[in-house]
Write a structure and sequence with these properties.
The complex is a heterodimer of chains A (443) and B (468).
Chain A lengths: L3 H11 L1 H4 L22 E8 L8 E2 L4 H6 L12 E2 L5 E2 L7 H5 L3 E8 L7 H10 L10 H6 L11 E4 L17 E2 L36 H15 L7 H25 L8 E5 L2 E5 L2 H14 L6 E7 L7 H25 L6 E7 L18 E6 L6 E3 L19 E2 H12 L4 H5 L11
Chain B lengths: L9 H4 L10 H11 L14 H11 L1 H10 L4 H15 L6 H14 L3 H13 L4 H4 L2 H13 L5 H8 L3 H6 L13 H11 L7 H10 L3 E4 L2 E4 L9 E3 L2 E3 L3 H10 L1 H15 L8 H13 L4 H10 L16 H11 L6 H7 L25 H15 L12 H6 L6 H13 L5 H12 L5 H17 L7
Antiparallel strand pairs in B: 1-2, 3-4
Helix pairs in contact in B: 2-3, 2-4, 4-17, 5-6, 6-19, 7-9, 12-13, 15-16, 15-17, 18-20, 20-24, 22-23, 22-24
Classes of the chains: A alpha/beta (443), B mainly alpha (468).
Chain lengths: 443, 468
Amino acid sequence: MFNRREFVKSGLAGSTLLAFGSSAPGFLASTAMAAEAGKEKILVVVELTGGNDGLNTVIPHGDDLYYKARPKLGIRTKEGILSVDEHTGLNPALQHLKPMVDEKKLAAVLGVGYPNPNRSHFESMDVWHSADPTRRAPNGWLGRGMSLLKMREGHVPAFHISKQQLPLALLGSGMGIPTLHPDKPFDLQLAGDPHRFQSDSSVATDKLQPKVSKENENNKKRRKLIDELASLGEDDKNEMFQFVRRTSMHTYTSIEQLREILSGGFQKPQGQAEYQGNQYSYKREGLYYELQLVAQMIRAQFGTRIYYLALDGFDTHSGQRTTHAQLLQKLGIAIAQFFAQLKRTSDEDRVVLLTFSEFGRRVKENGSGTDHGAGSSLLVLGPAVKGGLVGEHPSLEPDKLDNGDLRFNIDFRQVYATVLDRWLECDSRRVLGDAYENVPLFA
Amino acid sequence: MAASLEKLDPAEAWKPATEDIWNLKWAAHLFRRAGFGAPPFGFFVSRTSWEALQHAEKFGMDECVNQVIDGGPGQDYFTTLADEDTARLMNDDTKLPQLQGWWLNRMLFTPHPLVERMTLFWHNHFATSIAKITKPALMLQQNMLFRKYALGDFRELLREMGRNPAMLIWLDAASNVKGTPNENYAREVMELFSLGVGNYTEQDIREAARAFTGWRASGRGYEFSKGKHDDTVKTVLGQTGRWGADDVARILLEQPVAARFLVRKLFREFVNELEPPPERLIDPLAEQLRESNYDIKQCMRTMLRSRLFYSEAAYRKRIKSPVEYVVGLLNAFYAVVPAEAVAESMDGLGQSLFAPPNVKGWDGGKIWLNSSTLLGRHNLAWRLVGGEDVRFSRRIDPHAFVRTSKKDSADEQVDFLLNVLLQGDVDKVAREKLVNFLQDGSGEEREQESRLRELTHTILLMPSYQLA
């Protein structure tokens, strides 16, 4: 294992941070509230994009009204529902999470939502990201929380692992949050550059080792020039220009950081084995791979406190049965293998994973699928979590529904507040603007 | 920065700008916004994009705006050639990079770039992804429909969307039948295609969904089944009747808010995506759009000729989308490259043509750039101009390009490239640093060639080059 302290020293020396003094990008934590290396508590957020059907995720199989509303889509107990209590269980497609259910490391929070639910994907997603149902907050709950977190100096507070755009949830810290494409080089590629972060898995890991001594002098000059040009123009009044300038500087700084870490023996995970033809191939994309990448980053002692990922495809207006089962299976395998990997490196105790979706779906099925709904369930996992059901399942009585949708019992900001206060150890009132009653997620 | 749009007088803002302000900077601005960078081939008789830009400056604003709106010479010839390509790809064995390359080629070589720009706008407005459609021919067919109505009658386009096979599949028309309505299309047509959120109720969606029942995709066409259509009375946005799909499309566009919604979106795409415009600035154009029966061409003519368009409130107030960045770069060098290879190389930049992330399309603006997509651009730029990738190396040659300027000194060569790529929007210190970098070589022909490639790459990475 390479020496962390040496890295911080050399990493900063080589980065643009020192070169630009006061105009340095606010990319790295520079807080006095230093955290202890290898002890930071970490939150992994997995967004289930498209509106996950909470009712078919955490299933109230003891309630006849469920089967009445879902004659085609209802999941029967004989299909193998994973019992959480005698009336409620998880979709059989989540079978890989059974050990975590049995070991009480999985909490299913029931009936989560907010007042006057918005049934637009994009509006409701923004509500969840900003933690503001009035849609006035211009930034996200994690972004606002980030500046209050205990961090080791010089570390990246949050990573977004994705092929997609930076989520609103991570904005608002005043720091640039790097997006790491799971499958692309995270470096500036110059002529014959030995520093490439190869995505090609067929390249043996020894070829990934940088030949620092052979770093092309000319490339060094080019990097320096590119850095310098991005730093110019501080006085320009065009806000769009300033945005690009800041993003460029943040990016170049994070390249320097990651290059150091990646040269310190970091190995990209192998990927998910798939049997094709008559041999295994390894799939280096999707939630499984992204979570394995996070596990490796945690193992490499990144000081990062928050990781943000997403699984898309939950907008099941039609053909829901197959699609939803496939998605939940992906989710279950990815999470189970993530914690298995963390266990191998004894990092599991300091990781909690939270799933959420912009809304649940209509109680009554529409044929082969379900339309946009409101209240839903979400999952919180990890050894630190107090397993089991949290809250009551909302009533399925037709006259107790809100326009055919589940009412909520727990405001989603109560879940956020609990995670902020109890897990990330920062004052939720400063993030959410109000005090929200905690829910019993942690022992 | 102060909210500059708030201070503008709407009565003045949309008046035509005066010819006397016209210069190289505004010519380049027009071609970046209404096309993909440099003036297209054939607009002006020219050997390089630089010559073309200089011609544009001489021809004047009126002439250039007219060419942009109505298209340059050779449109029929181009259409004939392009349609042959379209026919060849109109089958379901076509691969995504082929489709993307087909479109990039049109963007690169069309004598009427605004049509392609608007086609892209509609693709983003009615965002449909091949990820769910899976049939390339249907994506191509939908794309041709966007092109047909690019500068046409939006009422017709919205009506057509209700029976477009790709759209029918995309928003689950097949399962929207009498008795078990599926709200997917009804919701998105109001939220994203016509009115915008907050301008309808959940009840409107439920009623409209019933009006849309009975349609489904069938092969390359559609089917309407009377038996599956709910023929009962519905009330949508206050109008009651036995409405069907076309009636709802009509009712939607009768709402005054619909024209404002569309103009707002066009404003963001073509004028300024930094600040949301105040309502009173949008109103005059929205009114014109409604009075013209949703004639998009007329609206674009007003916008692209306006004082506001040629003002600091619009200048460099957009971030180039990945497509604008790449096509613009190729246009600057008049590069003829294998478009399919370009399409493949664009993976990871955040804009995969025919595969928008969801029905809302690409958000654009600041969202285009994060550390990953910025590096994606930078690395693609090197791939295109660096000379290491054999598919592009001989077709993009900054050294040969600079030689056309007949400039010998490092100062003049840097100025030439900065003029072509940035029309001089460069910090003095930055210019000095670039000149020093170029002078730093031995001056040998071979080294000079790679120096100019490196210099060009550096300019393409500058923050100001990311702005449209």
